[in-house]
Here is the input.
Amino acid sequence: MRKIALISAIAAAAIGLSACSEKTQDAASNTAESAANDVATGVDKAAAATDELGDKAANAANNAAANVEQERAEAEADLHNESVKEAKND
Here is the structure.
């Protein structure tokens, strides 16, 4: 009788532990999935910020190039006694 009670108690404990283990696995899976989503969101935000910075840098470079061209044309116009428009066409 004692053996049957002991075996029943061990079986009940094993079932309880396996259920607990399953809950732990589910919680760990949910945590990992949440962390992966957070990382993906962070990567998306970083990519968007990088794109925006790249666009700003490209615009700044284009503006600088336009300013340099304007100054070059003005200097050439003064040197050759011509209009800036004529200097830009040279």
User: Anything to note?
Assistant: The radius of gyration is 36 Å. Residues 2-89 form one domain.
